[in-house]
Amino acid sequence: MNDGSGFFVPAWVPEGARRYLAHTEAGHSIRELARVAGCHASTVLRQIRKVELRRDDPLVDAALQNLATSHCQPRQKPSPTDMQWESDPRAESEQPVDKAMFDHEAARVLRRLCETGAVLAVAEDMDKAVVVRDSGPAGNTRTAVVAAAIAQALALNDWISCDKPGRICRYRITAAGRAALGQLLAEAENRARRAREDGLAEAQAGFTGPAGRAEMERPGQAPGRRKMRYGMAESPLAALARRKDRDGKPFLADDLVRAGERLREDFELAQIGPNVTQSWDGFLAGKSGGDRRRDPLSSGSSTARDRVTRALSDLGPGLSEVALRCCCYLEGLELAEKHLGWSARSGKIVLRIALQRLKRHYEMASEADAMIG
Asked: In sequence order, what are the residues at sequence separation of 6 or more whose Cβ sits closer than 8 angstroms to the Cβ of residue 187?
């Protein structure tokens, strides 16, 4: 934002859009921007023209309008040397979408859009968008709900694109979006690994003898050693739903897939990831509810976490673990069977039973909600 001392925009805004806003909203000339950036004026001109051509996209246009309204209305034109292109600490609290929130939501949404047949649908004048996946003759399955501000930021970064804008726009992930997803997941894994290493170092500091250190360093005992498997193209449920049983019918009916996707959506809304999977392992082992500590981004996720807890509690031991591994952790059936010590090809039968119980749980929960009032 511009408070007279500088020109501030959120850190997730791409470079071309920053210069476009500085030129069209703050009134800086192209030569000024090029001099500050240390590049040729023609480079800045091409970036500005590229952004201008993309304003036919409803999400891109809305993102630029919102940024211009909230961050780029100058009371006093700053000098080019005072312009700052990263988030200002004073403006961070006023930003509707900060960098950490954007990265987290972008990873969640882009993972969904990587699934086969998935699109992000946006209707006019709606404050929410939805990710839906083509389920064939059974219709479409909703897999995620996205805030409009997040959808606009994804489009502005060219991570999603719409071929034919209309009353309902359908966006698909771009090559840049797939590359960004890989980077976001790698950064999240690095943060989780650093947190685990810091926690392990603190725990080791409390052990004075070599026996204690050996206990903490034993392979398999350190938290987070299990490697998660994220499906970039489709979830294990989607792959299993394509299979046919001996009668030629889909092995998983569409309502069972929806039940599993609903559990995964609540899991993701609860801001649960590899950094806290150990707490859910404790829950499945019969401990009380797992670790309730959350980061600031997950402070409003208690309702979704409680829904996951109730669903897993209703499934009980065994069924809850295979549902958690395949629906939420996105582990393949072979990996889940290996972890659980089951025989080969038995996992899909148990998973189908778990999804049937899960479907019944959600139906009973809906009936209970309908009876209230």
From this structure: 103
